[in-house]
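Entry 12.
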Amino acid sequence: MTPKSPHPSPNISRISDKKRAATTAIVTTPKEASCSYLDQDYNTQITTCQVSTEKEIIEIFQPKRKNAELLAESFSRLSLNSRAFRSLNCGTVIKFTHAITDQGIDPHGHLAEANFCRDRLCPQCSARRSLKIFAQVSKIMTHMGNSYEYLFLTLTVPNCSPEELDSTLTRLFKAFDRIMKRRNVKRAVHGFFRALEVTRNDQTDTYHPHFHVVLAVHPSYFHKSDYITQAEWLQMWRDSYGDQSITQVDIRKAKAKVDGDLGSVVAEIAKYTVKDTDYIFPGDPDKTDRVISILAGALKSRRLVQYGGIFKALHKQLNLDDPEDGDLIHIDEDLHPALAYVIFTYGWSVGAYKLTSRKILGDAKLIDPNAPDGSVMNIDLDAPINQIYKYPFDPKVIK
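Predicted 3D structure (tokens):
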């Protein structure tokens, strides 16, 4: 479907003249947005519409949603019917909230609602979970301030066969508990965040499970007897895992790239546990099913991420929810006060997201000075004139 050409106020064309004059100023597309994404014919398959929030939908949500369908098909073939149903219906409806200011509509919206399935192998949920982990760890480290320095530790083991992945993971988790309980580690390390990553070598059909860990130490760690050398970390890991053939442990001080910003460090550990490209193979359902069957069994009932020490204490103090099973919608996005908000709803249809509804929520006095105090306007931009707005309306609708 070809989109309509942008026009001055396509979003308020159904509002009466009196109301239009009051709302035109607060419902305008920003100068940098060349596509009329308020147009009801908006479709993410149309290249001229690929701007702002729509770029996020196209580059992240849409490809992940397509792979979620392939995941659902695989679950169905594997007789994992419940997981197939959840994955098939994951992210079919997503809503973004855009603030309206005197500068117009903010092109960068906040995800306000979505029907996520939370499956560990779901590509869409994994992407949101990675953002959530990034936000939580960043918030914790910011709260810790300059009281600690950070070490980035990577603990690896030899690659294993598909049949050995489950037992290797069990051994890996136990080894991590052992090394963190060693006396010199407990004395030097005051907290940690640990994340599991599993990669797959397509040429050898082997798996490489490993841990990414951020360790919190006092600044004096590097100048005292508590300091643990790389060789000592390597030997402790060999002993903890029970394999003297391990040749490498990567331990280094986390260094901010710009002005004390440790975002690059957090991004390194906030990776997906398994990338969907390692188990979704379009055009090869047999291979997809084989790999998904292995991963689904090996990852079942495991804590893929873990907080310890000061990280765990601050996670609780900051009232952060479970990084794996908690809210995947409101990651770390505080909606700043604005005159009003536009809610865009997108529905999944025939391989793309289609804009299905547009609503404006905000202070009713913006369009009617006589509106009761505290009332909220609810303007359905696709409704007949006699259904344009109503108040009072539940303010909690504004996410």
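Annotation: Residues 52-77 form the longest helix (26 residues). Residues 123-284+291-317 form one domain.
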